[in-house]
């Protein structure tokens, strides 16, 4: 083939770096290597997005039969009319479409369609394919494809995850229509264990997937969902509306999560707008065997004591499904009995017990332990009125510290893994422990003196910006023991400097940037000082360990006062102070810094409050540190109506007006004390910003609020702040004010006209007028 075409005919072949490219140029087919580690020397035939940077594979042909050299391999149409992958000198194919009884093999062609579907059929009419890649799912679901079950043949079309990020071999997780026949789709582990279901189809949505409800305007303003159940087949599919012009896909990941993505051109990254299941630890087998899943930990999976990762490289790629293996085997004699003194147990409290427990008759916990010890295959036991034992591997052990379960489990280990001191005399133990305490006390004193001297003499950079060592921050946070919360880019921990100053230390996760560039950007951010911007005090950069040290805000984030308690928590005066302060902070970033900084993630969770409830915009430097890579910020939106400006979805260039839109959406929430979108005991949802815009035009905006919400504010002031919010969320960014103009309007220095109802929000609020969001009556 001399040029890129969308069609492969019977007298052509494709090899090396040759490709088929769909007519619109959006998809390409050819030989590829997975970009993740561990894929060296293995090549596959696949389809990927041709216009998107990086590698996003949507289909793989020879998943289980990789080739070692694409130059000496070909993709061609064989004499029997099958599309095959084979070595040049071999007649036996490595992979084939396996079309039976092709009556006209010489007229057979393969064509890559604009949908990303590869079809094999007879030229010139391929509209009735003999075979298509859409019938041969890998891990990706493209618009127009179907999860289906043929009722006559029993054929099931399902998605199956990759084995790991570097290996497209079918993995442990899949998604398909419910094998039991219920009108829903389910996620399965090992094709046998269902760990999540969508809920039954209700006629226009699935009961367990509110994100796809017709009243949830996004993604329904972009997608059309269809579930069909007839005599021939049952299937679920989705399509993208013709005017949307976006790339979108769904995947079942190597971690067992089902996710849906949309490509954001301006950010040059995929945005996740849908993920199931929400709780990562509910994915069966996600952490593999002999490990524990922790929902709130920085790393969800960890090996149990006495075990190590089976494949450490996979854990680096966030694939834990292979689990963990023992450091030291258990000591069993040839006859299968156990030398009891050579094995022991260690206890883990507050857990959700593993699956596949066996109930054993035992009067007490001691008898339960002996029963386990006397069985060579017994790996753990638990006793809470009933004796439970586990044989061989442990699956789905979960940490429930902080609530959920008081169960405890005893894990069996070899003697060398248990520090067994029963054979020692108590006086020897006392001497050893006493000596250890004295030695530790002395070492601790020396360590504290050294640390305080070192931290007290830390290098100053950029005036007051401090460069910390990672060990310093471990010391200041007591090894990161007190977590304040988690943000878009990592967890935040409380620390105390030697001068008793409390600080907030953010550990950046999934963050990759060169040392020189990171220090340069941090230096710039550290030089920014404004009373409404959180102050950066220092940083740490040691390889992949990147941390930022901020001033500590004792009152926490704004969302805590708006959504976690009564809206009466904040007075109107404080709300106005917060609204103006945030606007001033953003105006400084947009208009007064040497380099304009666009925040890209304005929401109540990123607004911190000091002791006087003066607001400070947080995380404003992360957009600058990340450049155009905003994907981690965007993943938090999940596709529900939030704070994203419409230009994020349309792929237009992002300016400071994207922050203005997000500020406007947040301002509605500050006014009302509630989320813009809330469930009120019905399947309908109501979008508050549209109600405000419409009531403003009718001169009745005050009727949306109960008197307790607007106590101490005049109707004029209420209308002014509502006008500002509505102007900030206009469709056209040129119609939105700058943040400097917002400050002047809120402070009463500039008057503002009535805004039109934003058409973008009207689309989002389609059908929402039937449900009232806020009562105008006082709360009883």
UniProtKB/TrEMBL annotation:
Cellular compartments per GO CC: plasma membrane
Annotated Pfam families: B_lectin, PAN_2, Pkinase, S_locus_glycop
One Gene Ontology molecular-function label: carbohydrate binding
Sequence ranges assigned to domain Bulb-type lectin in this UniProt record: 5-133
Coiled-coil regions, chain positions: none
GO terms (BP aspect): recognition of pollen; response to other organism
Chain ranges of the Apple domain: 332-414
Keyword field contains Acetylation: no
Stretches assigned to the Protein kinase domain: 478-750
Main localization (coarse): membrane
Membrane-topology annotation of the record: Single-pass type I membrane protein
Matches recorded under Gene3D superfamilies: Bulb-type lectin domain, Phosphorylase Kinase, domain 1, Transferase(Phosphotransferase) domain 1
Keywords in alphabetical order: ATP-binding, Cell membrane, Disulfide bond, EGF-like domain, Glycoprotein, Kinase, Lectin, Membrane, Nucleotide-binding, Phosphoprotein, Receptor, Serine/threonine-protein kinase, Signal, Transferase, Transmembrane, Transmembrane helix
Enzyme Commission number: 2.7.11.1
Subcellular location per the Swiss-Prot or TrEMBL entry: Cell membrane
Family matches, as PROSITE patterns: BULB_LECTIN, PAN, PROTEIN_KINASE_ATP, PROTEIN_KINASE_DOM, PROTEIN_KINASE_ST
Transmembrane segments: 426-449
Family classification: Belongs to the protein kinase superfamily. Ser/Thr protein kinase family.
Name this protein carries in UniProt: Receptor-like serine/threonine-protein kinase
Organism: Paspalum notatum var. saurae
